[in-house]
Amino acid sequence: MSGKIRISVDAMGGDAGAQTVIPGAAIVLERCPDIEFLLFGDKAVIEPLLENHPRLKECSRVFHSDVAIEMDEKPSQALRKGRGKSSMWQAIAAVKAGDADVAVSAGNTGALMAMSKFCLRTMSDIERPAIAAIWPTMRGESIVLDVGATVGADSQQLIDFAILGGAMARTIQGIEKPTVGLLNIGVEEVKGVEEVRNAGRMLRDLSPPNLQYVGFVEGDDIGKGTVDVVVTEGFAGNIALKTAEGTAKQLAGYLRAAMSRTIFAKIGYLFAKGAFDRLRAKMDPRKMNGGVFLGLNGIVIKSHGGTDGEGFASAVELAYDMAKNELIKKISEDIGDYHRGKITTADEGLEG
Amino acid sequence: MSGKIRISVDAMGGDAGAQTVIPGAAIVLERCPDIEFLLFGDKAVIEPLLENHPRLKECSRVFHSDVAIEMDEKPSQALRKGRGKSSMWQAIAAVKAGDADVAVSAGNTGALMAMSKFCLRTMSDIERPAIAAIWPTMRGESIVLDVGATVGADSQQLIDFAILGGAMARTIQGIEKPTVGLLNIGVEEVKGVEEVRNAGRMLRDLSPPNLQYVGFVEGDDIGKGTVDVVVTEGFAGNIALKTAEGTAKQLAGYLRAAMSRTIFAKIGYLFAKGAFDRLRAKMDPRKMNGGVFLGLNGIVIKSHGGTDGEGFASAVELAYDMAKNELIKKISEDIGDYHRGKITTADEGLEG
């Protein structure tokens, strides 16, 4: 892709809205200067903030919108109120219109997904979109999906998720044939729900060309980094993600308490401060901020609503990577290859 | 309860069998001298091991069994092969016969649950047993169930789990009216699967007398200790448990790596060694070893198969606490109170 990466931003999304979004966008620009921003929201709020970031101002166009979606609005409400005219909708619509390569919002997840589906539509050959999270592991990073777009998934939808997640791994991690595992409660073929068992059999039989299906994985395999892509339906995926976040916070709390309990511990902390700082940086949840909506005719990135500028910058940087490395193109290729493969396999079946 | 607590043990269960079980039982005896052990397994293996633990030998009776269930046997296989004659079955049967107050095994979970159900039967008014885990939280400990007895649960089964978990919290934590939350992917009433939403409504309407239903909780609420009892079906519960275990290991790995990277960090580690030791003890998974099978006419405790003597001792100690504090009696009371309450509520409904 030549030229600048065009990122449309819902400047009113998130707990602090433009107060977080504008400084966040400014941070990214330092790392990735080849961005052009389309900022959607209240001009009266955005423009004064841009005055503090002259470089961002130079690379941005501001599009006024009167309507902002609240963090607690129901998806159906948000659609009624915000379709066409909200900053969230307009940021997504810019992708649909081809004016932006990718959209980012820190607004409410349900509303953002509803609008994204309504505006961008699901890709042909994909039944349902998924939200993919990038999960830090002991071996690097893995992709976990779906972490909450939809509750439940049938076998075919799980296979779609495998292909979508595989394409994302190829895009951001540059892995040629990512390893894929189905999240289950045991690694034996007989374990788990029927949908997962069937999806496992189908993935083995069809063996999609651009990924390497390795079988079932369990909850502790995610953090180990056993596979590049972990596939599950949205209920279990969301619970896994939040449980891991909770556990990480809990252990950080234990560590802080342990390091401040005695004078020796405090002295030890001072000596090891560099190490603790690195550890803190490694565990910083802001670095991994950004859920990727996959399976739509366009890419939308969801940032945590409660993050700060640094965290929002991570989400925008993720958006940048996805657009720069042509995620949508890779997904289309992978879906095409998979379906051609399916047809061939069926033919062989008939002949044999 | 007067007299000794009688604990039946499947001495052949677990990766290392009696090599772990016998030293483990000996450790518990130091902490809880009022135990009588019934040890089931190969006498030729058990008796020589007992020679190293004269005190344990004195408090134990050994019952010979030729058949040991393998760790990878399917439940149906295990039942066919081991019903009546395996050490696992006999340990459970001792509870049924009233010879033991509680059974402990480190054997394979599926086989142990299948045999426990077959031998002890599900309690009347309870549809399905659950496996409850004790989860360390920032506020102490919570109970999470089901962590893998069955995949899926309908609303009534989730309510059963709430009552079973509540009774367990009353037993081991001495809380009079434990708080209970339903694990979901959002705290709003409209979120999640139908079974969970219905169970939430029913728990609000029926308000079982011995627990306090607080609503939906999310994955990160488990580690926070938001509620005393977290209720979910076995698929999501197992994934949450294993994901948390995986995250804890991952962070411990990061911490170890950080503390050995530079000379300053190493010096810091030496100063803070006491703090790190306490932290390690706090995070020691062996301390929280033991899944409790709830909803059967008798208590069975499942120890991790790969644990060591110290870990097995934790599982036995948990069994001891359950028996000593009369878990089964409390469960029966709570189920009775709940069903009387349901009938009263229905009557009121008719009259009003």
From TrEMBL, chains A, B:
A GO molecular-function descriptor: phosphate:acyl-[acyl carrier protein] acyltransferase activity
The UniProt entry lists the main location of this chain as: cytoplasm
Q: What SUPFAM superfamilies does this protein's entry cite?
A: Isocitrate/Isopropylmalate dehydrogenase-like (SSF53659)
Listed under catalytic activity are: a fatty acyl-[ACP] + phosphate = an acyl phosphate + holo-[ACP]
**In its UniProt record, which GO terms are filed under biological process?**
fatty acid biosynthetic process; phospholipid biosynthetic process
Cellular component per GO, a single term: cytoplasm
Pathway the protein acts in: Lipid metabolism; phospholipid metabolism
| InterPro entries in the cross-refs | FA_synthesis (IPR003664), Phospholipid_synth_PlsX-like (IPR012281)
Q: How does it assemble?
A: Homodimer. Probably interacts with PlsY.
- What is the protein's name according to its record? Phosphate acyltransferase
Please report the organism this UniProt entry assigns to the protein.
Pseudovibrio exalbescens
